[in-house]
Every structure is written in C-alpha cells, then in structure tokens.
Design goal:
Helix content is 47%, strand content 27%. The chain has a four-stranded antiparallel β-sheet. It is built from three helices and four strands, in the order αββββαα. A hairpin with a 3-residue loop joins β3 (49-51) and β4 (55-63). The protein has one domain (3-101): minor pseudopilin epsh fold. α1 (3-18) packs across α2 and α1 (3-18) crosses α3. The chain has helices spanning 3-18, 65-75, 81-101, and strands spanning 23-30, 33-40, 49-51, 55-63. By secondary structure, the protein is of the alpha+beta class.
C-alpha cells in the first residue's frame, strides 16, 4: 500500500468519525503517480482538475461528503465504529482501484 493510499484511508476515516463534510478526500493519478488530495466540497465541480504544469489529475477514488455522512450514520450502531469505517473505506478503495486500473 502506498503512502498516498494510507493517507487517503486515514483522512477518510477521520472525516467519517467526525462527520466532517467540508472536504472531499481523493486518491488521484497524476501522470502515473498516485497522490492524495483534499478538496473543499463546495469548490469541487468537475471530475478532472488541472494541477501544475498542465498535468491532468484523474480521480481513482473519491470520498464525497455524501459518502462521509453515510458512513458516519451507518457506523453509529457499531461498537467498533473506527474498525467498521476503516474496513468500509478499504472496500470502497479496492473497488475503485479495480475499476480504475481495468
């Protein structure tokens, strides 16, 4: 697992625990390099963003404010909330990576 993936999971987990929907958490491909990005939810309005020197940023996985809220609400009933959320984030990320790379 890459550093960017670990950071994505950590930040998405924290956002879900706190129901912090101010930002969208993204794992992106920038010219073949995987990176973590955090973008204000109100400013995000397209699937591709330009970042420095004209390189296109392609989303691999996006944890939106709706998904953050959904995970927060669904995990309330679980005595091990952080474990439930972490497993959910891992699942979403694995499905997104599979779709992106196939």
């Amino acid at each position: 697992m890459s550093k960017a993936e670990r950071q994505f999971i950590k930040e998405a987990l924290n956002a879900c625990l706190k129901n912090d929907t101010r930002y969208m958490h993204m794992l992106v491909d920038v010219s073949g390099e995987t990176r973590y990005m955090k973008i204000s939810s109100k400013d995000f309005n397209r699937r591709e963003e330009q970042q420095g020197e004209g390189r296109v940023v392609k989303p691999i996985c996006i944890f939106s404010n709706q998904l953050i809220n959904d995970f927060h609400e669904r995990s309330k009933q679980d005595s091990k909330r952080s474990v439930w959320i972490r497993e959910g984030v891992h699942y979403v990320l694995s499905k997104a990576k599979k779709d992106f790379y196939t």
